[in-house]
Model the fold of this input.
Amino acid sequence: KFTRNMSSMKAIVIDKTGGPEVLQFKDSPKPKAEAGQILVKNHAIGVNYIDTYHRKGIYPVPTPFIPGAEGAGEVVEVGSDVTDFKVGDRVAYTGSKSYAEFTPVPVLSAGKIPDNVSYSDASALLLQGLTAWTMVRDGYSVKKGVHAAAGGVGLLLCQMANLLGATVIGTVSNDEKAKLAKQNGAHHIINYSHEDTVARVQELTNGEGCHAVLDGVGASTFETSLKSVRRLGTLISFGNASGVVPPISIAILGEKSIKLMRPRLYAYIATKEEKDKWWGELFQLLADKKINIEIYKTYKLEDAKTAHTDIESRKTVGKLLLEFAN
Ligand code: NDP
Done:
């Protein structure tokens, strides 16, 4: 047990995997910036679906651990050999342990944010924005098809694919999400809680199917996605919101010669050059006002449980953030 003093901080800690109740708000040792790291005082912390996979153990992390894959704040300490950052810099980062007052961040995972971009916007954009942008630029030069179009990644994908000239078909589970996805660039909406996705896609594409389907929903939509891709099309399966896609035989791709991709953002930003390229392009889109950030709600860090319950209950749209109020 730690008492609150200069060497402790508040954080969400997971001692054992499980439901939202395992997210405990408590005192934790305040980290230091080791060599090659900066210590960030978090002002905005992004909630991402991946945080629920870590919490549940779908993506195993040794316990106990502080969850959270993204944040933005000010640099309060720099490790030895760090030359790119100084105390007081405004930064955002992807990585780990962001559900806390302070997070140690390897310099490769961090970047300065422009003066006119708020911590909230930076944290709302970064991880989901990089995910969406790398998929539409590299995974496939998108033409059609986005699942969970009103989610964090979904809304950004709709905007980016639209920007690149695609005809975007978005799937959503309710009318409010349909409206928002349309406002964010989806040309057509399929409400997959009561519409037949495959039939509607055929109707909208003259019976040919989508050039590309981007599916972050996972288990419950994989088959539909496969059926919705056209001959020689691409299926990008980038998440498991409804559960992990069961193992498949690659032979099922043969009928239509489908390209199947399973991207992870971190593979795209593994070197400084790659990170600088993708971050640069993403923040340029924001500077040019080509993308709009939709923040659903900012929760207190101690209410991380509620944020997880909300995102898993499918009632959220756009981005969820956490903040630590002193
Ligand atoms: P979202 O804000 O999109 O929330 C998830 C959405 O998934 C829900 O709002 C819901 O939309 C839909 N959904 C469909 N079925 C279910 C279900 N059974 N339970 C819960 N939700 C369901 O989250 P994010 O934007 O943070 O993430 C979206 C996806 O992108 C996730 O799968 C995530 O893992 C993935 N991702 C992958 C990355 C990568 O590197 N590969 C990086 C970042 C995110 P609706 O109600 O409209 O169906």
In short: The domain at 8-125+294-323 is CATH 3.90.180.10 (Quinone Oxidoreductase; Chain A, domain 1). The radius of gyration is 20 Å. The first helix runs from residue 49 to 56. Residues 72 and 92 are 4 Å apart (CA to CA).
